[in-house]
Each structure stands twice: as C-alpha cells, then as structure tokens.
Amino acid sequence: MIPFAFYGRVSTEDQQDPESSKQWQLHRSLGLIEPAGGEVVAEFFDIGQSRSLPWKRRPESARLLAAIARPDRGFSAVVIGEPQRAFYGNQFGLTFPVFTHYGVQLWVPEVGGAIDPGSEAHDLVMMLFGGMSKGERMRIKTRVRTAMSAQAATQGRFLGGRPPYGYRLADAGPHPNPEKAGDGKRLHQLEPDPETAPVVQRIFDEYLAGRGYLAIAERLTADGIASPSGADRARNRHRHGLAWGKSAVRAILCNPRYTGYQVWAKQRREEVLLDVEDVSAGHQTVMRWNGEEEWVWSTDPSHEALISMETFREVQSRMVVARRGSKPRRGSKTERPYLLRGRLTCGLCRRKLQGSWHHGEAYYRCQYGAEYAKSAQLPHPKVVYLRERDLLPDLDDWLGQLFDPENVDATCEAILGAAAEPASPAERAAANDLLRECDRKLDRYRELLEAGTDPAVVAGWIKDVQAERSRAQATLEALDGAQRADVNTAADVRDAVEHLGGLIGLLQVSDAKLRSRFYEEAGVLGTYLPDCRSVDIEADPCVRKVRVGGGT
Fold first, then answer.
1. Which among 449, 315, 278, 477 has a CA at the least distance from the CA of 375?
2. Closest Cα partner for 161 from 288, 268, 299, 264?
3. What tens digit of pLDDT does each residue of 309-321 get?
4. Which long-range contacts does 494-498 make (Cβ < 8 Å, 24+ apart)?
5. Is the dihedral of CA 199, 205, 208, 210 positive or negative?
6. pLDDT-derived band at 452, boundaries 50, 70, 90
7. How far apart are the first and last CA of the chain?
8. Do residues 229 and 241 touch, judged by C-beta distance below 8 A?
9. Helices and strands (H and E) in the chain: how many
10. What is the pTM of this model?
11. In sequence order, which residues have a C-beta less than 8 Å from that of residue 248 and are 6 or more positions away?
12. DSSP 3-state helix, strand, coil percentages of the chain (rounded to 5)?
C-alpha cells in the first residue's frame, strides 16, 4: 500500500460548492492511485483561494509543503485531481523541485501516474496546464469586465456596491437572467434619499460659492448634519461618524453619478509584485484610479439627477484650477529612508503612522484630527508626531538583548509559551462583548450630540470609551496572535531566533534597507501612545521571513 496525500482547490464558495468540488477531485485522484495500490491518508484542500496565489501563500498548500519537509509526514506521494486548479503560470517549475528534493512523488491523471523529474515530456505537459490555467483566468476576467462595461454603457445598470451618499437603492424589477430570477434575485437602481440628497446639493452650492473642503465640513458638522459614516452606521461601524471630513466632501464633489448617469470603471484592479526581489512570491491585487477618459458612462440618464451636468463640470474645472494654483511640491532628490515604515500605529485611532521628513530627520505622524471638522471636538490632537531618532536607540538595545546568544533560550521559551497558550473561549467572548458594548456607547453618544448635548462633555465620554475600545481590540489581537499557525516546532522557533541573533550587527550598519529588513524579519510592531509619550513594542520573528542581506 502506497500512502498518498491528496491536494485540491476550489476558488469561491458562492460560485462552486466546496464539498462537491472536493469530492469529484478526490474521486478522480482515487481512480488514478487505487489500481496501483495507493491510499489517501491525508487531505489538503484550499477553499476560496485564487489559483494565482503561489503555493506558500495558500493555507493548505503551504501546510502540505511544510509536511513534505518533515520526516514523519506519513505519506510518500502526493496526488492532484486536476493540475489546472493547483498550478498557475510557472508555479509547477517553482514547486516541483521541492517534491524532488524530499523524495516525494507527484501523481496527476494527465500523465497517468507519477511525474518523472527527468522527463521533458512530463515537464512540458505540466507547464502547458499551468499556461492554460493562467489563460483561462485571464479570459474570464476579460469577459466579465467587457460584459459589465456594456451593461453600464448601454443599459445604465447599477452593478452593485454601496449607493452613493444622497441615494438609496430601489427595486428595478426581476433579474434578466432567468436562472437568477428564479432564485429571487432582482435588479436595483438609485433613487434620491429624502434626508441626504439635499445635503449633496448644498455641498455643490457651497463649493461654487467659494468655500473649501474643510469650511464645508465645519458648517455641516456645526449644523448637526450626519456625515456619510454617521448616516449609515450599519455599514460604517469601524468609523466614528461624529464629524464631516475633508475627504468625504471631496469624494462627493468628484462623484459623477450625481448627474443622473451611471458611471463605471472609475477604479481598476491591478496585480503588482509582492516583492520585487523575489518574483516567486507572486502578486497582490491593488486598486488604482483610472483617468476620466477611461470611465464608462451610460448613454442615457439611468436615475434621477441631484445636480446638473453643467454644475458638475464647473466644479471639476474649479478643482483643477485649485490644484494648479497651489504651490508645486518638490520631490526629494534621494529616497528618504523610514526604518519603521508601516510598523507603527497610533494608539488613539489605531491607524498606521505615516512617514514625514522634517529638518533632515524622519518622523512618523498621524493627521487623523486634522482631517475632520474642529467643531466635533474629536478626542484626538490635530497632528501626532513621533521622531524616529527618539525611538531607535531603545528599540535596538532591546532587540540586541532579545536575540543575544546568551538569551536565546529565554526568547524561544517566550515565543513558544505564547503560541502554546490558546485563548479560552471566555477570554475571547469577553473581549468581543466589550468591543460591542463600546460601539453601542459610541452610537448613543452620537445620538446625544445630534440631540444638542454639549460637545465638550460628550467628547470626554468618547475619549474614555475609545481608550477602552483600543484596549479591548489589543487584547483580541493578542489572543489571535497567540493562536497563530505558523509556529510549528521548537526547532523552527530556535532557527528563527538564532538566525536573527547572527544578523543583530545589521542594527549598527548605515544601510537603511538592511536595517529596515531586519525590523521586518524580527516582526517588530509598535503602538505610539501620545498621552504618555511612550511606544509599546512587540517582536515576533516567527510571523514572517524575508530576505535580509542574502539570507532568508
């Protein structure tokens, strides 16, 4: 009997039944291995993972690779029911050498058994299926985008998503697809919201009257008008909803759908390399703004307009003139190094601090308070600053002690202890209950503000509740971190810690990229608490491994 591990994948739960997909892939695999005396002893099945993701970034395939590297894996071969679901593009060429290195066979129906590492024919077949998989995905994307573009242009159809502030969704009849109509799905269209539509018209009028984004936000907040996130709390519980912000006013002024036309393709999904120094890490999807010339407009109006096309064009031209009239920003001649880029968070609002260069030094700042109307008296300073030079010496001293050879045992024990102590259901439930209670309090305080309660009094309450909510969120994140699945054995932890101990000298070098990579590999994360001028730092070298100075 030959022990096999089975691997399969299904892309999305809403389009395919995961259980049915798994069963037919498994059935196809068993039909290949059972005549040869094979038996499946382990299963690895990814659900909801795109085929474009490399194996190391899919949960189950990454778990399979980790199992292959262990001597006690319990199987000697892997069978895949459909290689097009498993391999995409050049993934086979990047993955199969791992199987060969550890002496694990890979069986697929397309070659009638095990893939021969020395066979050019087998290699060509597998590369062909990888190319077909990539081509199939690209064809689907092209068909969907073309169909949605045609529906927006010729039919003016609402293609989903949130309705813009000022509108609400109305029923537009049964879905034209008979199958979807049979399931009860219906079309929707936009109609003006009686409460918020006049606010949109007021914003356009005030901008044309010469007021800026922040001035409009101040007037709306002072008049007690709910912001977009305040008017729709069900879908914006992650925002405070207490005040209008500059970005909300600008987004409304830039939205062409207030003219009554349906507009699609303002943004596009674009795949960019996750790590330009490691192409095998694959791509990540990011959203990019399209130029106005790439927008798809409906041929005819599709819903009731809140403003005229002439008003919208006038506003856009004024915004262009305002941008051109501002002082041009001179870019720096050299790249400015921020050693802790993306690794620091504001303890007041839980947003990431942004890099800012002043007087030849690196700072990290949070401008959360400056983005919203002052009349709301948010419990957050206008701008929070943290100078990098004030933090690095203490951080480097602490990391030096943490990864010093004399402290390796204690550091490994601390990491393993955190991973070995699973959060009790009671602890997790208590943290979630506290988060919900804080959200309920914030909603009540917003209602009190709308009812005319003194903003200064309510702001104090909000500050206390947000601090309590931040502590509950931190507790929940700590509980989640304690249950991470990427710490496998004590040997893995010791390897990571000893590796960083050998690279600790990078903290003294002048190369900013090397030092920044070290902080990333050490898993350094920090929360800045402006009230007490302190930074809570944590480090976990087992969170992620990256390339540092040629090492991994």
1. 449
2. 264
3. 999 999 999 998 8
4. 494/408, 494/412, 496/541, 496/542, 496/545, 497/403, 497/408, 497/411, 497/412, 497/415, 497/541, 498/405, 498/408
5. negative
6. low
7. 38
8. yes
9. 17, 17
10. 0.64
11. 165, 217, 227, 228, 229
12. 50, 15, 35
Architecture of 2-139 per CATH? 3-Layer(aba) Sandwich (3.40)
Strands (E), 274-335: 283-289, 296-297
Rounded to the nearest angstrom, the gap between the alpha carbon of residue 277 and the centroid of all alpha carbons in its chain is 21
- Mean pLDDT of all residues in 162-182: 88
Give dist(CA 348, CA 351) in Å, integer. Answer: 8
pLDDT surpasses 90 at 515: no
| Per-domain boundaries in the chain | 2-139, 188-262+298-325, 342-418+483-552, 423-473
- The CA distance from 308 to 324, in Å, is 25
Q: Which residue has the tokens 């007037």?
A: 219
Cα 99 from Cα 86, distance rounded (Å): 14
Q: Phi and psi for 471 in degrees, rounded to 5?
A: -65, -40
Which residues is 44 bridged to in the sheet? 7
Residue 295, token pair as written in the block: 């927008």
* CB contact burial 274-294 (16+ within 10 A = b; e otherwise): eeeeeeebbeeeeeeeeeeee
The pair of structure tokens assigned to 151 is 């529906």
d(CA 219, CA 206): 10
So what's the architecture of 188-262+298-325 in CATH? Alpha-Beta Complex (3.90)
**Cα–Cα distance, 383 to 158 (Å, whole number):** 40
